[in-house]
C-alpha cells in the first residue's frame, strides 16, 4: 500500500500543534476524517502509535514525540518544494525568434501563453544564431529555419516593390538586363532568407534565367534590404505579411514556389512541443505562416 508520507506528516504536525484532531484538521485545511485516516495510515506505516487516544486531547506518545522533529522537517521541505515549483512556473521561457516577427504578434503570443501559465520572453536573432542560443542555454527554445518541407510552419515568399506589378506573379526573367531599357533591377535578400535552402534556390533560378550575379544581393539587415527597394524599381524577397507592413506591393514568383520553413527546438522536448501544438497557431501568426 502506498502511503502519502507528506500528507500524513502534515496532518500529524498540525494535530500535534493544535492539540486535537478537529482543530488540527482545520489547521491543515482538510476535513477531520481525512486527517484521522492519514494519521492512522502513517501509524501503520511506521509501526507505532503517534497519539494517545485515551484522553480527549491529542496527546503525543513517546514514539510520536521522537518522530515529530523529522515530520516537521519533511513538511518544511515539501512546502519549500511547492514554493520553488510555483516560482519555476512563473520564470519566463526565453525564446529566440526571427527579427521578422512583429511586436503586436509577439505580444499576442505572449498573452495566449500566459493563459497556459507559460511566461514568454523573446530574443530576436539571425537564423544562424537561434539554435546556438539554445545550445549555450541563453534561451530555452528557438524558432529555427529549416527547409519548407521539413517545417512545422511554412511562410510563402514572393517579390515586393514600390510599384504594383501588372501581372499576378512576378517572373524573375523579366529583370534581365536590357529588357526594360533602364538600370538593372535587383532582388534584395534579407538575412532571414540568406540561408542555403532559400538562397541557393533563388541563385540557381537567377542563373537559369540569365540575370547578372549582382542582380540578386544579400543585405546585412532587413532595413538595408528595404532601403534598397524604396525609391527604386528593385524588389525585396519577403513574405506577404512583411510587404504589407512595409507598404510594398507583393506578388508570388512565377518560376518557383519559394517558402521559409520553421521548426521549434529546445533543450527540453516538452518546450518545443508546446510551441508547435498548444501555441502553434499564435507562433504561425508571428512568422506569417500559411494556415493560421
How is the biggest beta sheet arranged? Answer: 9 strands, mixed
- The CATH topology label of the largest domain is D-Maltodextrin-Binding Protein, domain 2
Strand runs, count:
11
Order of helices and strands: HHHEEHEHEHEEEHEHEHEEHH
Overall geometry comes to rod-shaped
Report the CATH C-level class of the largest domain. Answer: Alpha Beta
> Helical stretch count?
11
Report the mean per-residue pLDDT as an integer: 91
> Rounded to an integer, what's the Rg over CA atoms?
32 Å
Number of domains: 3
Question: Mind telling me which CATH architecture of the largest domain this is?
Answer: 3-Layer(aba) Sandwich
Q: How much strand content do the residues show?
A: 15-25%
Give the termini separation. Answer: 50 Å
Determine the fraction of residues in helical runs and give it as a percent range. 40-55%
Helix-and-strand structural type:
alpha/beta
Taking pLDDT < 50 over at least 5 consecutive residues as the criterion, the unreliable ranges are none
Family: Belongs to the LysR transcriptional regulatory family.
Protein name: LysR family transcriptional regulator
Organism: Amycolatopsis heterodermiae
Pfam families: HTH_1
Amino acid at each position: 500500500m502506498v502511503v502519502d508520507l507528506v500528507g500524513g506528516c502534515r496532518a500529524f504536525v498540525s494535530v500535534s500543534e493544535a492539540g486535537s484532531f478537529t482543530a488540527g484538521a482545520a489547521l491543515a485545511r482538510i476535513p477531520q476524517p481525512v486527517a484521522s485516516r492519514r494519521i492512522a495510515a502513517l501509524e501503520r506505516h511506521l509501526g507505532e502509535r503517534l497519539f494517545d487516544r485515551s484522553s480527549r486531547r491529542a496527546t503525543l506518545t513517546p514514539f510520536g514525540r521522537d518522530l515529530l522533529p523529522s515530520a516537521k522537517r519533511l513538511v518544511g521541505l515539501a512546502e519549500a518544494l511547492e514554493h520553488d515549483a510555483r516560482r519555476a512556473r512563473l520564470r519566463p521561457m526565453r525564446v529566440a525568434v526571427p527579427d521578422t516577427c512583429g511586436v503586436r504578434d509577439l505580444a499576442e503570443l505572449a498573452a495566449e501563453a500566459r493563459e497556459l501559465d507559460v511566461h514568454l520572453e523573446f530574443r530576436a536573432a539571425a537564423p544562424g544564431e537561434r539554435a546556438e542560443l539554445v545550445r549555450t542555454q541563453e534561451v530555452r527554445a528557438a524558432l529555427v529555419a529549416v527547409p519548407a518541407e521539413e517545417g512545422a510552419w511554412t511562410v510563402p515568399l514572393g517579390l515586393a516593390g514600390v510599384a504594383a506589378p501588372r501581372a499576378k506573379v512576378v517572373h524573375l526573367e523579366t529583370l534581365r538586363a536590357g529588357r526594360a531599357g533602364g538600370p538593372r533591377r535587383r532582388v534584395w535578400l534579407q538575412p532571414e532568407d540568406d540561408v542555403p535552402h532559400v538562397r541557393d534556390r533563388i541563385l540557381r533560378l537567377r542563373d537559369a534565367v540569365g540575370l547578372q550575379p549582382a542582380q540578386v544581393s544579400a543585405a546585412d539587415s532587413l532595413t538595408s534590404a528595404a532601403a534598397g527597394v524604396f525609391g527604386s524599381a528593385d524588389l525585396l524577397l519577403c513574405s506577404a505579411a512583411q510587404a504589407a507592413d512595409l507598404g510594398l506591393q507583393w506578388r508570388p514568383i512565377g518560376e518557383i514556389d519559394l517558402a521559409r520553413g520553421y521548426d521549434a527546438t529546445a533543450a527540453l522536448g516538452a518546450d518545443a512541443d508546446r510551441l508547435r501544438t498548444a501555441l502553434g497557431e499564435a507562433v504561425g501568426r508571428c512568422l506569417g505562416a500559411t494556415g493560421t
